Amino acid sequence: MEKSSYSGPSSIVNSAPVSIFSYCASSILMTLTNKFVLSGDFNLNFFLLAIQSVTCIVAISTLKSLNIITYRQFNKDEAKKWFPIAALLVAMIYTGSKAIQYLSVPVYTIFKNLTIILIAYGEVLWFGAKVTPMTLGSFFLMVLSSVIAYYGDAKGVPAGDLFELYLGYFWMFVNCFAAAAFVLIMKKRIKLTNFKDFDTTFYNNLLSIPILLVCSFLFEDWSAENVSKNFPAENRTATVMAMLFSGLTSVGISYCSAWCVRVTSSTTYSMVGALNKLPIALSGLIFFEAAVNFFSVSSIFLGFVAGLVYAVAKQKQAKSNTAQQLPK
Membrane spanning segments where (predicted)? Predict the structure, then answer.
């Protein structure tokens, strides 16, 4: 992981608790901010994502000029090779934005676990990875928590609203496949290019901007009536500020991920990622109108346990692989 050259107090820069809290906070903030913007009548999803990418590029360029982070200079040949990955990123973030537009934050968070299953079996096919019995157990819990989440979410929904609910699940499943393809192909490309965290952040966001803008102007309604509908006078400033803020939180996630691994370990980082699903799901219940019943609460808890079991299984597998590689 790339180290920060930030010259502030070493007690903060090297603090594991602060890095963990920052990573969790940035994840929660980005999820809630996107839900806030996409709630209601907002339908310019491509434009929202383009603004987020532009904000991210401006932010990391500023950080680089201040010598807080570093990343490689733009290279045309590298950009051509990375462009398909940026296209997959657009597919992933767009389908994710559509899913969270129609689904509640807890359901969205729980169903994201299904991406882990797709990635795991993709790694089996592409990289020769192994799936242990404990990992299979975590997959079973992930699927079970998703089924319970669906039941709790659909319970009591008026018949007239079921179409939007099912539309949300459609986008969610497409997002899971898009996210798995993005992660697997990017992993393969990173091995060839030796990209660091902020190299990846730079190219992903820079190359996605033209794709998002073209898609926005081709497929989204830019009539005066629709623009007014998306940015109503009474909350226009709040919407624009939230769009910009969500772009900054994406930078925060990239930076805090690198920071957390540097001052703790990849094992701790994976555990934090599993534990982080609980506060994200609960925050969705608190700040947005989500179904609160036995099934929805149970699915959140079960999804949290599934993530925890998966993290422990991966740690044990990593230790086992390390032990096998040691000379006897």
Answer: 12-32, 44-63, 83-104, 110-129, 136-154, 166-186, 198-219, 239-261, 268-288, 294-313
